[in-house]
Amino acid sequence: MAHTYANLLTHVIFGTKDRSEFIDVQLASALHPYLGGIIRELNGTALAINGPTDHIHLLLALPPNLALSEAMRVLKTNSSRWVHEQWPRRRAFAWQTGYGAFSVSQSNAD
To answer: Are 14 and 98 in contact (CB under 8 A)?
Structure first.
């Protein structure tokens, strides 16, 4: 894809299992950067990561050769495993099965 240009911005939302309020300030301050690191490893860019205690919002720019479903599988699997490894007492932490994804035009990225 040497001559391919893409600007694929996607707003992704996914929640904790049963919308449990697992993401407190302590977890969010570590989880958000970790999620950004996973996206970087996938050759994408996390433009924004935020959310309340029961779900996450991400604004992502993903490469054109990466399916969104694959990115979400890697992101949710690895972040859940990481939470369990870093905070053994949070063994109940889990993400819900699905996610919502919406395309965002560059003019609305802010």
So the answer is: yes
Sign of CA dihedral 29, 54, 15, 23: positive
46 close to 58: Cβ distance less than 8 angstroms: yes
- Could you give the 3-state DSSP secondary structure of residue 41? helix
Q: Which fold has domain 9-108?
A: Alpha-Beta Plaits (3.30.70)
Residue 99 CB neighbour total at 10 angstroms: 20
Direct distance between the N- and C-terminal alpha carbons of the chain, in angstroms, rounded to an integer: 28
95 within 8 A of 16, measured Cβ to Cβ: yes
Beta bridge partners of 57: 13, 50
* Each residue's pLDDT tens digit, 12-68: 999 999 999 999 999 999 999 999 999 999 999 999 999 999 999 999 999 999 999
The model's pTM: 0.91
